[in-house]
Amino acid sequence: MANRTPNIDASTDQLKSDLEHLTNTLEELVNATADDSRSNIKEMRQRAEQRLKDTRANLEARGERLYGNARDNVREQADACDKYVHANPWTSIGIGAGVGVVIGMLIGRR
User: pLDDT for 21-78, tens place per residue?
Assistant: First the structure.
């Protein structure tokens, strides 16, 4: 789990960089609009649209990657739990019964 933190930090840094580039491009577009030069506005608009498409694609890719990592992590944990229950059935039954008693007592106090 310690090796995942650098990946998250790198992803966060990349996201910040993408958003900064998008902001800069949009600021250039606003500044170009003030000149009212039609060719300049068209060029800046195309750059802004391309930057927006790139940023959106990057965000979607990161979201899919994070979802996949979370799904894999949950699957690994579920598999480990399943193996433990199969290896130690009586211990698992005892833990389940103990948790049931505690929950029953908590509900009974209401």
Answer: 877 777 777 776 666 667 777 777 788 778 888 888 888 888 888 888 899 999 999 9
Cα 47 from Cα 24, distance rounded (Å): 11
The domain segmentation of the chain, as residue ranges, is: 4-108
In three-state secondary structure terms, 110 is coil
89-101 burial, b at 16+ Cβ within 10 Å, e below that, comes to eeeeeeeeeeeee
The 3-state DSSP composition of the chain as helix, strand, coil percent (nearest 5) reads: 95, 0, 5
pTM over 0.85: no
